Amino acid sequence: MATANPSADDLKLFSLQQKYQEEASKRLRSDGVSQFIELEKAGSTRLNALAEDPWADHAALNNKEPIKNGATYKFVILGAGYAGLVIAARLVEAGIAGGPDDIRIIDTAGGFGGTWYWNRYPGLQCDIESYSYMPLLEETGYMPKKRYASGLELREHAERIAQKFELDDKALFRARVTGARWVEETNLWKVEIAEGRGPGEETRNLSVQANYFLVASGILTTPHVPKIPGLEDFTGPIFHTARWDYSTTGGKQSDPSMSGLKGKRVGILGTGATAIQVVPELAKWAEELYVFQRTPSGVNWRGQRETDPEEWKTKIAYKKGWQRERQLNLDSFLTYAPKEVNMVGDAWTEMEAYCAIIGSPTWGIIEPTPEKIGEHVGRLYKLDIKHSEGRRARVDSIVEDTETANKLKAWYPTWCKRPTFSDEYLQTFNLPHVHLMDTNGKGVQSSTPKGLIVDGKEYPIDILVLSTGYRSPAYGGGNPVVRTGIDLRGRENKSFNEKWEAQGATTLHGVCTNSFPNLFFAPMAQFGSAANNACTIDVAAEHIAHIIGQAEKKAGGTAVVEATVEAEEAYAGEILRRAAFLAAVMGCTPGYITSEGEFTAAGQDPMVMMKKSRMSGWAQGMEHFIGMLQEYRADGSLKGIEVKKAVSSS
After folding, report:
1. pLDDT tens sequence across 305-352
2. What's 78's DSSP letter?
3. Which DSSP symbol is given to 495?
4. What CATH number does the domain located at 67-221+475-580+591-645 have?
5. What are the DSSP calls for 506-571, one per residue?
6. What integer is the mean pLDDT of 148-166?
7. Domain extents for the chain?
């Protein structure tokens, strides 16, 4: 203990931290992220097939030609989710694009929406309130139906944005960018594309050129499963939640009446944010439901309700700029810098200690000394006690069986996993046909043709749902390109991935990097952090549009825009100067935030840790970060960015 005469609160905190460490140690594995396999790389025909797109209308898409082979476009954007759409919209609004004809979008999916295209499981909702999350509500004039939008409404909103900005016929779907290369002689990106055409059709290879290439390919895009021996031999239907199989369950996204589950024993593997929504829906239809748990989620109250049109007009969408104001109001409560009025008032706004992972302006910059870091981490743990204990008490107040309740309690700080929200999940375990199969942190042992084995005992099931998540957002050290599989080459044939691997995260403001002119990306590292990713996306889109717009003013037309080495290294220094604030993540239970413990493993070389720390976010919160960007943009000089007129511009 730090003091000779510890107080009762100090002793309580010490005991709690010991409990957290004990629970985390159960889940630490030497194979880290290697305990999972991406569906597309599973080496099993059956598991590979689980990654295929069940939603694409191949016949309709094959009749369209949104991108012409050999053509040149001003902007080529990789990603048709909210990030790609918002970037495109901000380019159009800023007048840089000239019009939507200057923009082309490429995506592996069969339509707009990103994660909301792929995920169509029953019960799907966004965990951030729709008024703050759904992008461009002011611009589209749309009023969300409920406080928390359904997955269907979110996908339809992506299509609405595309229509509003005349992008709906500017996207090439079912297509992978296989390579992109900067051509010095023409000041253009040459982008190689492989377009899938559906079952039985040959892949079509295309090549286009772009003045600007923008990567906005999303975070949770690659579904994976644990390497469970015998999994591919399970004889019943099996599918991942990111590719929900309504042909097996019955129903559809708009009406998930899953009559196909009647009389069936259903197993669901995983109890993360997805399962919290899926489990109550499965329980309504399955004869028996077995929920296999490695680590319980912390489950907060939800409070879903219809949008009141009068409240919408008078208190929510009541003035120009209301959505950004609301986003930052929500963010203030999560960064321990609360505004006087709580506009959102949901369970998120009760999580003061969530600032441990997204930063806070309240305590300034934490000195990177053991003493100061220890003080800071202790302060965060104390700040979290009220919420984390309340969350565990909520389990006791809802779940009737004491043993089950104890297994459903989250023994880790609020910031260590994505918080979840439900007024149905915990209640589901009071139903006699719902069974919690807790694995005490070990995970499922193996699979048989007829079921799953936990601690040596087989549990027979007829249908298996894999709610096992995605490749970690920390994959590749926050590299926005490596997760796409692109071989991306800049000046002098320099590899983007090799630069990132050698130096760690290296950007200016999280959106561009030296040696890769006219390349911009939705930030994965070195940017402001927020629980609301839609806010992060929009802030980045505005900044990208500003940089390109100012550069074109300077150049008098299409520009060549490139961050300097000095500027990106100075910026990395500012990120590292603040990184000690985020030290509390080191004590987290293994999960996607820590790359299953790899990121926080003890005994790592200090230089390796320094390189990893470069991927940190701006640890003083999103509003503070926006203020820094606004100050940077104020004089319009684009300090740290070299600009020249592109030789290819007319």
Report:
1. 999 999 999 999 999 999 999 999 999 999 999 999 999 999 999 999
2. E
3. B
4. 3.50.50.60
5. --BTTTB-TT-TTEEE--SSSSB--S-HHHHHHHHHHHHHHHHHHHHHHHTSSEEEEE-HHHHHHH
6. 98
7. 67-221+475-580+591-645
